[in-house]
Structures are given as C-alpha cells and as structure tokens.
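ok so I'm stuck.
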Amino acid sequence: MSKSIRIHVFGKENCEKCKLLNRRIDRLVKKKGELFNKVYHDVETIEGLVRFAQTECMNPQRIPGFLFGIWDSEQNQEYMIPQDPDANLSDCSMLANYLGMQTDYTGSGNGVIAPDQIERLFDKARSFLTS
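replied:
not stuck anymore, here's the structure
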C-alpha cells in the first residue's frame, strides 16, 4: 500500500501524561495494524519544537497532544488530515484545523486523553484513508 497513516505525538521527556498517551497510542498502533505508525516529537528539542510550531494549531499549554497525517510513499509527501467540519469543537481538547487532540487541563478534561477518544480518532483517520 502506498499510503499509510502517521500519528504525530507531541510531548516532553519527563512528562507522565506524555508517557501515558504514548503507551495508549502504541497499543492502538499494534491493535489497528500496519496501516498506522507513530512519530514522536519531543518539544524540548529543536526538531520537536519546530514540528510542533508547524502544526499551527496546537497549544503549548496543552501538551501532550497528537494529530494524524496521510503519508503517500509514492509521492514522498505527507498531508495532514483535516478536522471534520461537523466535529464538536466545544470539546476544547479537539484540534480545530486537523484531526487530533490536545490535553484538556480544565476540570472536565482532568488532564488525560481517554483511550476511547483516541480510538475514535484512529477510526476516523482510517475512514479518511479508505474514502
């Protein structure tokens, strides 16, 4: 297959919530198969911070977070999966521009992205690739 889904995860080295999100995403990558692969960006490195800034939609106060892209190996390029125009953006953990989430540290979010939220986005990303 010439196209696959990349999950770009943004976090910090000594962040427990980042480690938790990485474990949850790793489990889903393993469960969902070779169509998905994860790319981790440590925002405390220059490379990670540059990639984080290039998203133009993630809040540095809401790390960890992640977003999805489609990698086309034939074209040797990636494009980010746009957010569903009907997405409920009142959930402040959802990204406005791209399919992805960032951590909600308000009382309702409790500072953790739940496994079911992550899996729903995995399924949306898969449907985008197959549509």
